[in-house]
């Protein structure tokens, strides 16, 4: 079947694009649209054309799978120009998303109309590129420079009503899109036509505007190259004639397409889309998830409850006594209050979210839930006792999950009569924000239970990654190696602050030592102490020396650094230097690039071991874990991608 079909409703022609799954602008579609313009221009019975798409969305952009290959004619900028020059006015009728090249096609049309829940945007920077078919040159002619800069440098889409008030679209359609768009077209041809977008005037901000914008973009990009290049392209559009600006944009697009950053971001794009639906589970039906319970309303439990409520499901919280129930519900309310404070929720929305969380100490309340997620203290005895109770009260097909970070899920499940429905679901803090969900089946976990874990991931809009059982699963195991390697550098004489600066320079929000000061050094210390108490041979770390001296991080006023009360900025510590004297070699001159190469290389080496042991299924899975759970810079593609030529 052709990806483009033409029909006629009186003097209005409709061009329907049907190129599943997302109507991406592959060669067949570009050619189909090119031919449609020619055919309809030649048809005297047609006065206007409505461009509409079948399936879940309008054209979602260029076909990203073509980016590794040489471009083939008709090129997208030429197609957009061809649309603009069409003798009959085209009306883009948008549902779902008009993104990147899809929005650029809409900009080539004389009019744009959209359903109220449709979104438009220029997400190219999230793929390490800039728009390549006029997005930076035409968009500011419709909405002004400030909004074009915001859209194209962040890649964030706009909903139709906002796009309408910004001038990016001409109408929001209520009811049936095609009917509304045809009616719009009929009315439009009775009026004088507006100029094509390329012929409209553009604002010319002063140098100070660009200076501020460059500063802001450099700060938020944290090392990603595309945002500042997109800014330069918009600036060019304000300073040069249309054709010259188009050429500049295309040249930048072609250059960035071939960069390491673009390759990394494309790899992440496809890995993220593959993660929620692993091939091995394609034929396994997940169990329905209508009602979920969470045991423990502390830091993690409250965040998990908030995430489930955000997905629209009711939640039951079980705590150990009435006071703890009240504290747990208050913790959950706090999460929603935070949403109100940050302007993400209205008070009424927050209230609805709070209302559907019930707290109790009575396990009988769990008789009809579909899934239970345990988030109680990290103690095997406490967890086993919880699962013994769950085994007694829950339906035989209810999925029972643990959020343990380090305990062996097999040992936790020993208390269960039917361990096939048991699974590890490892959330990351704050659980309503962090995208990563490690899914940890035991050898007894049934395929249906595993599929239900992934279904929960999809429901909560997480990035689910399956992990085998080992100390720390995928993410914390690599974290441990990374931290040990960072300590190794300190022992070799590399200053603590230089290591943190190197990793910040690499693109992480924080270096390894600053991050430990924020999270607290004591958790890992207690774990090592626990292992030592069991007779395991765990070497004394530099962190242990600090904790033994009372330095547990920011919460004790000092850890790897000193902190002045009320100020989170780390200060290099003479006390730490004194405590570590004798452990640390004389200062060495290692460059920041060398430091980052060593530490990322260590992460990748641990990743390799994880793959060899079958703990992770693919390097891409490991990269998703580090990007979505540990702040690894997305544009680097993850430690495995970044080190792929070296491992
Ligand atoms: N090219 C190729 N494949 C794409 C694609 C694209 N632009 N966008 C999505 N897909 C594929 C996905 O890989 C996935 O494939 P799979 O089923 O085999 O895993 C399938 O389409 C469905 O994608 P999602 O799971 O993301 O579907 P959703 O319904 O959740 O979301 C969407 C739909 C919002 C359109 C989302 O797919 C999306 O954001 N896509 C990317 C849009 C984008 O980045 N466009 C800009 C491209 S760059 C460009 O246009 C350059 C131009 O300026 C020259
Ligand atoms: P927390 O100490 O903040 O909360 C634990 C909660 O469990 C408390 O509210 C406590 O009252 C409750 N509880 C204890 N025993 C109970 C019982 N028998 N029945 C019902 N409730 C009980 O702990 P946190 O940080 O929320 O951790 C919970 C689990 O999540 C642990 O297994 C931890 O390893 C894991 N985890 C923690 C992360 C973190 O960053 N804090 C990240 C990922 C996992």
TrEMBL record:
The keyword Lipid metabolism applies. Pathway: Lipid metabolism; fatty acid beta-oxidation. Gene3D superfamilies: 1.10.1040.50, 2-enoyl-CoA Hydratase, Chain A, domain 1, NAD(P)-binding Rossmann-like Domain. Residues 291-466 form the 3-hydroxyacyl-CoA dehydrogenase NAD binding domain. Keywords: Fatty acid metabolism, Isomerase, Lipid degradation, Lipid metabolism, Lyase, Multifunctional enzyme, NAD, Oxidoreductase, Peroxisome. Signal peptide: none annotated. Monomer. This is 3-hydroxyacyl-CoA dehydrogenase NAD-binding domain-containing protein. It comes from Paracoccus broussonetiae.
């Amino acid at each position: 079947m052709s990806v483009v079909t033409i029909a006629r409703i009186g003097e209005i022609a409709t061009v329907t694009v049907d190129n599943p799954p997302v109507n991406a602008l592959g060669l067949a579609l570009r050619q189909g649209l090119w031919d449609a313009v020619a055919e309809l221009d030649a048809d005297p019975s047609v006065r206007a054309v409505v461009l509409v798409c079948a399936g879940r969305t309008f054209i979602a952009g260029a076909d990203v799978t073509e980016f590794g290959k040489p471009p083939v004619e008709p090129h997208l900028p030429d197609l957009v120009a061809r649309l603009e020059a069409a003798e009959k006015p085209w009306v883009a009728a948008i549902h779902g998303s008009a993104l990147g090249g899809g929005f650029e096609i809409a900009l080539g049309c004389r009019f744009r109309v959209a359903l109220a829940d449709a979104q438009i945007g220029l997400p190219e920077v999230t793929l390490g590129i800039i728009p390549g078919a006029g997005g930076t040159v035409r968009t500011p002619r419709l909405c002004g420079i400030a909004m074009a800069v915001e859209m194209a440098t962040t890649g964030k889409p706009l909903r139709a009503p906002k796009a309408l008030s910004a001038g990016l679209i001409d109408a929001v359609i209520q009811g049936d899109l095609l009917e509304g768009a045809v009616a719009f077209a009929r009315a439009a041809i009775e009026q004088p036509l507006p100029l094509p977008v390329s012929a409209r005037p553009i604002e010319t901000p002063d140098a100070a505007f660009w200076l501020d914008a460059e500063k802001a973009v450099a700060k938020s990009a944290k090392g990603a190259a595309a945002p500042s290049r997109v800014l330069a392209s918009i600036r060019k559009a304000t300073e040069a004639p249309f054709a010259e600006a188009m050429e500049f944009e295309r040249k930048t697009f072609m250059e960035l397409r071939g960069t390491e950053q673009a390759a990394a971001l494309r790899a992440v794009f496809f890995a993220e889309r593959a993660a929620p639906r692993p091939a091995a589970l394609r034929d396994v039906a997940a169990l329905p998830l209508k009602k979920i319970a969470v045991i423990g309303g502390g830091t993690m439990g409250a965040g998990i409850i908030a995430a489930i409520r955000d997905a629209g499901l009711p939640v039951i919280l079980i705590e150990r006594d009435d006071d703890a129930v009240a504290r747990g519900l208050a913790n959950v309310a706090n999460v929603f209050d935070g949403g109100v404070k940050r302007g993400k929720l209205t008070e009424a929305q927050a209230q609805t979210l709070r209302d559907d969380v019930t707290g109790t100490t009575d396990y009988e309340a769990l008789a009809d839930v579909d899934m239970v997620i345990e988030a109680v203290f990290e103690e095997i005895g406490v967890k086993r006792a919880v699962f013994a109770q769950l085994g007694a009260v829950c339906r035989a097909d209810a999925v029972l999950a643990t959020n343990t970070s380090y305990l062996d899920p097999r040992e936790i499940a020993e208390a269960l009569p039917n361990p096939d429905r048991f699974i590890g679901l490892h959330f990351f803090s704050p659980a309503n924000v962090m995208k990563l969900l490690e899914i940890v089946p035991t050898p007894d976990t049934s395929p249906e239970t595993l599929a239900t874990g992934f279904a929960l991931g999809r429901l909560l809009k997480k990035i689910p990654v399956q992990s085998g059982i080992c100390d720390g699963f995928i993410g914390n195991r690599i974290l441990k190696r990374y931290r040990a390697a960072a300590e190794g550098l300190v022992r070799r004489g590399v200053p603590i602050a230089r290591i943190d600066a190197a990793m910040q320079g690499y693109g992480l929000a924080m270096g390894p030592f600053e991050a430990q000061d924020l999270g607290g050094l004591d958790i890992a210390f207690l774990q090592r102490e626990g292992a030592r108490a069991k007779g395991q041979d765990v070497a004394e770390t530099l962190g242990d020396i600090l904790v033994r001296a009372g330095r547990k991080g920011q919460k004790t006023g000092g850890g790897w650094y000193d902190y002045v009360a009320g100020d989170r900025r780390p200060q290099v510590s003479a006390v730490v230097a004194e405590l570590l004297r004798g452990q640390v070699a004389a200062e060495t001159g290692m460059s920041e690039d060398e430091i980052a190469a060593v530490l990322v290389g260590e992460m990748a080496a641990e990743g390799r071991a994880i793959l060899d042991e079958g703990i992770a299924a693919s390097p891409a899975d490991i990269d998703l874990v580090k990007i979505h759970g540990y702040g690894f810079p997305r544009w680097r593609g993850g430690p495995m991608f970044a080190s792929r030529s070296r491992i």
